[in-house]
Amino acid sequence: MDVPVPKGPDSLALADPDACRTLLVDAGFDPSSVTLQTVTHGWRVPTASFIFELEREAGVRTTALLAQQTPAVLHAIRQDIEAGMRPFANPPGFLVPYAAYVISARAGNL
Fold first, then answer.
1. DSSP notation for 53-76
2. What's the whole-model pTM score?
3. 20 to 30 A Cα–Cα from 73, which one of 10, 31, 32, 62?
4. Lowest mean pLDDT among 13-17, 34-38, 53-57, 80-84
């Protein structure tokens, strides 16, 4: 289904370490000081439907996309998300792994 959603930035624009470095150097940070470290962690959520509810109520673009769906389609999406959460069951809820960059840099004028 092709539904209109608000335009927004590329959510993966900074997933490329070189793009991060370039952005920081262009902003005046010392190129030799830029470090990127990938860290992983687990996000504890209470229920299998938590992420669906979060996306449906707390976002902008995904919220707009979901708001355009029929009740039957919303139900199917919820079921798919809940099924995808099963491998992350970790009582008393779910532990969803994620990765992020920890980025540090020193100002270029120091």
1. HHHHHH-SHHHHHHHTS-HHHHHH
2. 0.74
3. 10
4. 13-17
